Amino acid sequence: MNQLVDETASKYKALTKKEIDRITRDIQKDIDEKLDQKMKDVFSQSGEKKFALPSFSYNDYLRLMLLIGVDDEVKLYRVMDLIQFNLQENRSDNTLVLADYATGYEVTAQVSVNYLFFGLPFMPKETRDRAKNRYKFTISTSMTY
């Protein structure tokens, strides 16, 4: 039984690898064809050189960024740069910097409750203040965006 499972796994592993390789070749061929076409557009047939560089659309850039093995933090900063660029373009304000709009808060509260109200067995023992007959809790929360 184990041999049958191993043979089946090996067979499908090989088929999967072949299919992934085929898809990779197709994608690479498509990219090469598009780049060749862009280069032909940049350098026209008449011999006149156009000095425009091939450009990526917003969607092309996002696809490329996701395909390349880039660290998640770097991807996050690139997405933030794209958001900042879009805001600058939409508002016609090149001085707009996204970092100026980051905000956050941190709140810490200390709460004291009388035994009279919460003298129940589920209350944590480490929060008891026997001298004052109270439970004391410290609650903290924070968020940035």
Summarize the structure.
This protein is 52% helix and 17% strand. The protein is α+β, with helices and mostly antiparallel strands and 145 residues long. It has 3 domains: 1-55, no CATH class; 56-101, no CATH class; 104-144, no CATH class.
If you had to describe this structure to a student in words, what would you say it looks like?
- It contains 4 helices and 3 strands.
- It has 145 residues and is an alpha+beta fold.
- Strands 1-3-2 form a 3-stranded antiparallel β-sheet.
- The chain is flat.
- 1% of the residues are buried.
> If helices are DSSP runs of H or I spanning 4 or more residues, what is the number of helices?
4
Instruction: Specify the structural class.
Output: alpha+beta
Approximately how much helix is present in the residues?
Answer: 40-55%
Question: So what's the oligomer here?
Answer: single chain
Number of strands: 3
Beta-strand percentage range? 15-25%
Report, as a whole number of angstroms, the end-to-end distance.
55 Å
CA gyration radius, whole angstroms: 31 Å
User: Uncertain runs with pLDDT below 50, 5 residues or more?
Assistant: none
Main sheet attributes: strand count, strand direction, barrel closure: 3 strands, antiparallel
Q: Quickly count the domains.
A: 3
Order of helices and strands: HHHEHEE
